[in-house]
Every structure is written in C-alpha cells, then in structure tokens.
Amino acid sequence: MRTGQQYIDSLRKRDIKVYLKGELLESSTVVDHPFIRGHVASAAMTYDLAHDPRYEDLMTVKSHIDGRTINRFTHIHQSTEDLLKKVKMLRMISQKTGTCYQRCVGFDALNALYTVTFEMDAKLGTDYHKRLQAYLEYVQDTDIMVAGAMTDPKGDRSLRPGQQADPDLFVHVVKRDDKGIVIRGAKAHMTGMVNSHEMLIMPTMAMAPEDKDYAVSCALPVDAPGVIHIFGRQTNDDRKCEGDMDQGNARYGIVGGECLTVLEDVFVPWDKVFMCGEIDYAGLLVERFACYHRQNYGGCKGGVSDVVIGAAAVMADMSGYGKAAHIKEKLNEMIHMAESLYACSVACSAEGKKTASGAYFVDPLLANVGKHNVTKLIYDIDRLAQDIGGGLTATMPSEADLRSPVIGKYVEKYLKGVVSVPTEHRMRIGRLIENMTGGTALVESMHGAGSPQAQKVFYSKLSNLEHKKRLALDIAGVPVAETPKKPA
Ligand code: SF4
Ligand code: FE
User: Measured between alpha carbons, how far is residue 247 from residues 92, 196, 250, 438 in Å?
Assistant: First the structure.
C-alpha cells in the first residue's frame, strides 16, 4: 500500500495536460497548484490513514483475489460487513478532511463493473469480467487512484446520444480494430480526475439500439494521448492564491476539485475495454454505479456535517451565546439531520445482497433515499450553521486586514467575541463555516452522485406502489376488483 507522499510523488511523474484559467500547467507541478493542492492532500488521506493502526480495520482489508492486505478503496465488497465498513470509513475520513477525498468514485466504478461484467459474460459469452479482474489486480497491486468517469455533457437533454447535432456530446467509439478502440467525447464534473492515475469510463445512461457506439466502458491513464482536462472554478477560489486564513479549509479545500475531461480520439487497447456496444447493460451499469455512490453520501456528508455542526457550536461559544436555549435546539436539529443521513447509508449497506459475481450490492431503494435526503438536509444543516454563525461569516474583513500594521488593530478590536478567545481564532471558524456552507459545497450535495430526479426514478421502480395499494384496500375491507380502472 502506498503512503500519501508516495501517492503524491507518483502523480508528478505523469505527463498530464491540465488547463486552469486558460493556461496549461506544467505536468509535474499540477499537484502543487494552489487551486489543486488541497484536493491532492485530501485524497492523500485515503493513503496515509491506511497506515494508521487506529484505522486499520476500516481502511484495509484482505483482497478476495489473493488474501493480501490492500487499501479498502481498491476492494470488491465481499459481505454486508464490507459495505458497512465502507460507510464508516467515509464518515471517519470526512471528519478529518471536512471535504471530499474523491477516491470513492473509482472504487464504486470498480465494484459496479465487477458485478455487471460478470452478468454480461454469463448472458452474452463475452470475456469482459476476466479483463476487469486483471485490471482490478493491477489496481490492487499498484494502489493507484482511479477516477470514475460517468457523466457526459449531454447537450440537448430532450435528445438521445445519437440524435444530438454534435455526436461528441456523449463519449462514443469512433473506431475499432484488432488492437482496440478509439473514443471521443468528454466527461463533465470529474471529481479527483486531475490527481488520479487512471480513469474508468462508463456510459451515462441506458442506451437504445441506435446508441450502440455510446455503450462503452474502459480504463485509461489520465495522461493518455488525446486527453485534456479543464479545471473548474469554485466559489472564492482566488483566495487560494493568498494566505491560508480566508480559505476556511486551506489544508483540504472544498468539494473534489472537479474538471471537464476531453477525450479527443483516445486509443484504448482491448484488454482495458469492459463494454463495447452491449446496450442492454449500459443502464444496469449506471444503476449499479449510482447506487454504490449514493450509498456513500450519508457517510461522507455525515462526516462533513459533523465538522459543520462543530464549527457552529464553537462559533456560538466564541461569541458568548453558546449556552442559549435556541442555539442548543438548533444544534440538536443539525445532529438529528446528520445522523439521519448516516442512518440511510448504514441501512442500505446492512440490507445489501450478494450478486451473481459474489460481490455485495447495496439495497438500491434505501441508497437512493439516502442521497435524496442529502439534497435537502445538507441545505438545512448549512442554513442552521449560517444562522448560528451570524452575519460575520459573510462580511468579515480579510486576513490581510487583520495583519495590517495600520488597521489590524481595528479588526482585532471589533471582531472580538468572548474576551479569552483570540480574534483570529473566531475569524478562522467563521471562514470555515463560510467555506463549508457556501456555493460550490451546496451544489455538490444537490448534484453529486446524481440529481434529485435521478433518485426519484428509483422510487417508482423499486417501491412497489401496487403492493402498497393492496395493503390499503385489504385493511379498508375493499375488494381489489373494485378499485377504479384507468379509462380505456
Ligand atoms: Fe467520496 Fe463523498 Fe467525494 Fe463522492 S462526494 S467522492 S462519496 S467523499
Ligand atoms: Fe461527490
């Protein structure tokens, strides 16, 4: 297993093309860019914590392939206990980083592909599972970070991939020969991509027969010829080029450092191709991946919320209203919501089932409910943190003002709360609340792992509404045959 430092050093050896604010970055120093280094440090925690004896049980596991001890982020879940440990691991890491550490996406892509390629081979006689297993062994051997790449730009949402005016708005195969395939298109909102070693491409939705070229899954290095990454902006990101105080979470940043990854005729050899034209399995792969990733959100956002709740409570103490009844009430409300998020992740893991491949899969309905709760409750948790934090979290002068030999004394004097607390400490907590409850973080809770509507689709599919109707009819004493029929 790599350490965090070994992980970072290995990233320097890539020949990756990352554009940021219009400039191409020098590939060996991408990890040092002020916009990127926090995300790298956060991902490095997934490596370092695997060497910490306190977290050995959560962070490491025996590989089901050869019994070696591996980092859990490269593991295929072998039991509901594995699923539960994943959620506990995520909450634990989030409590330390206060933000996304990105490595779960590739982890979930591996597990989803493991189950789907097995079922695909059994039905179609293909050999994708064997290829995926060889790739998995490589990932476990090298402990690389793999970015999961699902979301296509999608263009006009009313049109299918093949109907778009521009055929590249969904990643597709443009050429096949005896050596491999060539793909073209882009993947959007790519979490952790610029600080990964490889990416796992997956289709973004179920495909129709005419979309055959779009049903493609494969693995490739992030620095393969033809791959270009365009780094996304975040709220207040220019503060990262200044001192650390105004950033709030200077060590780990916010969210995952997302980018737009362009694939301009990229060659992928056949041994790294895990789906090519099997349209009936594109939707299944999307579902499996989405559910594995939605499982996570009560873990990772539960841990992030622990930090937000702590920050709000500390701000109240530092300002002298920590003992007020309404503050306690608000903190309790926040705790209730954070634990509710976590409960769904635990529940969908405990209710997981073994798939034909032997890997365990979460309960899909509960996983979707959990992620859907995140799209609402994080807003409420953050709203209360801003309520408790006060207007200061949005109007505070800068670190440079505090340090100024001329006006620093005024900032020091007038931003003081409780006398025993240094003004700088109060300002730091205020910035943390601002950072963690601000624009980019909230949008990630809404759309990360899929937008709310994507979760609702699962409810009608999985909740068996007809069964619920029969329950009601039975208890009310109404014969089933007398329920209203739809007009012909
Ligand atoms: Fe992992 Fe959460 Fe980041 Fe997704 S948002 S990659 S689950 S830490
Ligand atoms: Fe996310």
Answer: 23, 24, 5, 12
Q: Name the catalytic one among 293, 344, 372, 375.
A: 293
- Substitution site in 104, 196, 294 for ligand 1 pocket (most atoms within 8 Å of beta carbon): 104
Cα–Cα distance between 177 and 266 in angstroms, integer? 13
Domain that holds residue 432: 293-471
DSSP 98-128: SS---THHHHHHHHHHHHHHHHHHHHH---H
Residue 467 bears catalytic tag: no
The single-letter DSSP state of residue 150 is -
Q: Which amino acid residue places its CA nearest to atom 2 of ligand 1? A: 300
> Is 135 annotated as catalytic?
no
Distance from C-alpha of 478 to C-alpha of 472, rounded to nearest angstrom: 8
CATH for 339: 1.20.140.10
pLDDT value, residue 488: 62
**257 within 8 A of 192, measured Cβ to Cβ:** yes
- Of 128, 135, 292, 297, the catalytic one is 297
The alpha carbon of 3 and the centre of ligand 1 are apart by a number of angstroms equal to: 20
Provide the 8-state DSSP code for 215.
-
Strands (DSSP E) along 142-238, which ranges?
146-149, 172-176, 180-187, 198-201, 216-221, 227-231
- Asked if pLDDT for residue 375 goes beyond 70, the answer is yes
pLDDT tens digit sequence for 62-91: 999 999 999 999 999 999 999 999 999 999
How many domains is the chain built from? 1
pLDDT at 428: 98
- Domain contains 158: no
Instruction: Please indicate, yes or no, if residue 401 is contained in any of the structural domains.
Output: yes
Query: What's the pLDDT at 483?
Result: 65
What is the percentage of the chain residues whose pLDDT exceeds 70?
99
pLDDT tens figures, 242-293:
999 999 999 999 999 999 999 999 999 999 999 999 999 999 999 999 999 9
258 is catalytic: yes
